[in-house]
Write a structure and sequence with these properties.
- With 118 residues, the chain is an all-beta fold.
- 0% of the residues lie in helices and 50% in strands.
- It is built from no helices and eleven strands.
- The chain has strands at 3-7, 10-13, 18-25, 34-39, 46-51, 57-59, 67-72, 77-82, 91-97, 107-108, 112-117.
- The strands form two sheets. Strands 2, 4, 5, 6, 9, 10 and 11 form a seven-stranded mixed β-sheet that branches. A four-stranded antiparallel β-sheet has the order 1-3-8-7, with no helix packed on it.
- It is globular and about 40 Å long.
- The N and C termini lie far apart (40 Å).
Length: 118
């Protein structure tokens, strides 16, 4: 059974930083594409970032230059470092995994709340 468990959410002021972590179990992490999505109430989930198992990374335009996705294959963990946070980044953030990581991930975590105040 694949499990993705997020941690690291919280509340910060605009301009602050947070680092989200996602611990993965139940699959071969080193060959898994990993990603992060986010969702605000009443809105569709939005792709944020991906770390492909071969090495490349991908970001939605709104977070480029501010967010960094990374992975530690030895720890089966993926991270999302978020700097320069803005109020519009307030969302529930979900860790994801799957082949089609940008559009239809196969696996989802339970989500962690990020709140940015102005």
């Amino acid at each position: 059974q694949v499990q993705l468990v997020e941690s690291g959410g919280g509340s910060v002021q605009a301009g602050g930083s947070l680092r989200l972590s996602c611990a993965v179990s139940g699959r071969t992490f080193s060959f898994a594409n990993m990603g992060w999505f986010r969702q605000a109430p009443g809105k569709e989930r939005e792709f944020v970032a991906a770390a492909y198992w071969e090495g490349p990374t991908s970001y939605v335009d709104s977070v480029k230059g501010r967010f960094t996705i990374s992975r530690d294959n030895a720890k089966n963990t993926v991270y999302l470092q978020m700097n320069g946070l803005k109020p519009e980044d307030t969302d529930v953030y979900y860790c994801t995994s799957g082949s089609n990581i940008r559009d239809r991930p196969d696996y989802w975590g339970q989500g962690t709340q990020v709140t940015v105040s102005s």
